Amino acid sequence: MSVRKARAVWQGTGKDGTGQLTSDSGVLSSTPYSFKTRFENEKGTNPEELIAAAHAGCFTMALAFQLQGAGFTPTELATEAAVTLEKDGPGFKIAKSALTLRAQVPGIDRTRFDELAKAAKEGCPVSKLFNAEITLDATLG
C-alpha cells in the first residue's frame, strides 16, 4: 500500500478567498489556487487541472506497463487529459475526462495497440477513481 499526501489551506470566502496547495514531495509548495484560478484565467492551479495531470500521468504509465508486458517498448507516449467540470444542481461535478494519446510504438499493430490502450484506460487507478465518462482518442504513429 502506498499513501501520498497533500494539504490545502484556504483563507476567506469561496469567491474572494485564496488557498495554497502543498504536497509532501514538494512539487506543490504553497501553490496558489482560488475562484479566479478555477473559473477564470488567473495564474495558479485548480483541482481539475491537478486531476487532469494525475489522469494523464497514471494512464500513460499504465499503458507503458501494458506495452512492456506484451513485449513492446514505446518510443514515446504523449497523453493529454481534458477534465470537464459542469454544473450539477446547486454545485458542480467532474463529468468527463477525455484522454488524447499520441503514441510511437515500434512493431505493434493497431488492433493490439487499441486493446492495450483500452486496458490501460480502464485499469489505471485514477480512472477507477472517477464516477465520470472517460474517453480515449488514441493515435498510433
TrEMBL record:
SUPFAM superfamilies attached to this UniProt entry: OsmC-like
An example Gene Ontology molecular-function term: peroxidase activity
Signal peptide: none
Pfam families named in the record: OsmC (PF02566)
Region of interest (Disordered), ranges: 1-26
NCBIfam families: osmo_induc_OsmC (TIGR03562)
Protein name: OsmC family protein
Organism: Enterovirga aerilata
